[in-house]
Write a structure and sequence with these properties.
single chain, 210 residues, mainly alpha, Glycerol uptake facilitator protein, 9 helices
Length: 210
């Protein structure tokens, strides 16, 4: 278990710190999307054999509901993931002197649009994850990473394209009240979207559903 938790901590740290650095370098959305997606690919290749490379509390929730993750590991996994995201945000503060990689919707007052965006993006991502699990494709890390690139490009100008509560909470906690005011979008949207993807998988797409 300890090896798994270290892997989840480091993997989550990696996928959060990469966009934190990109934000500090003031990159545009396209570059930020590629940085996020390729970081996910790299971390899955490195840590996937150890922990399953979830790096996302919403993914852990959906996999647990599907029976692909043990219930007794849920709380430790979530703790490792949130700590990894927070460590990335704090290191960004230490190195670059500010809160970078934070997520704040472009129109905070458009609550429905913001939460719907995160739900839809997260559902697509989780549907792809279920698909690569079903097919046991050796290119799964790349497929998932490229999906992240696509989804960040789709939603980046609306919500930032988080799809991951740990990805948002860590940097946003460093950002303080200016960013935490909309953190609920990123704590609620991704889990809801990924649970919807689990329902699609269990009722429509899996062999058991057929």
């Amino acid at each position: 278990m300890n090896r798994k938790l270290v892997a989840e901590f480091l993997g989550t740290f990696g996928i959060v710190f990469a966009p934190v650095m990109a934000s500090a370098a003031k990159t545009d959305l396209a570059i930020a999307a590629w940085v996020s997606g390729l970081a996910v690919t790299a971390m899955i290749y490195i840590f996937g054999p150890v922990s399953g490379a979830q790096f996302n509390p919403a993914v852990t929730l959906a996999l647990t509901l599907s029976g692909k993750h043990e219930k007794r590991e849920v709380v430790p996994y979530l703790g490792a993931q949130f700590l990894g995201g927070l460590a990335a945000g704090l290191l960004g503060l230490l190195l670059f002197g500010g809160a970078f990689g934070t997520h704040v919707p472009s129109a905070p007052e458009a609550a429905l649009r913001n939460i719907a965006t995160e739900i839809v993006l997260s559902a697509i991502l989780m549907a792809v994850i279920f698909a690569v699990i079903r097919k046991e494709n050796a290119f799964a890390p790349l497929v998932i990473g490229l999906t992240v690139v696509l989804l960040v490009m789709m939603g980046g100008n609306i919500t930032g394209g988080s799809m991951n509560p740990a990805r948002s909470l860590g940097p946003d906690m460093v950002g303080g009240s200016q960013t935490l005011g909309t953190i609920w979008v990123y704590l609620i949207g991704p889990p809801v979207g990924m649970v919807l993807a689990w329902l699609l998988e269990s009722k429509v797409l899996s062999k058991e559903a057929a």
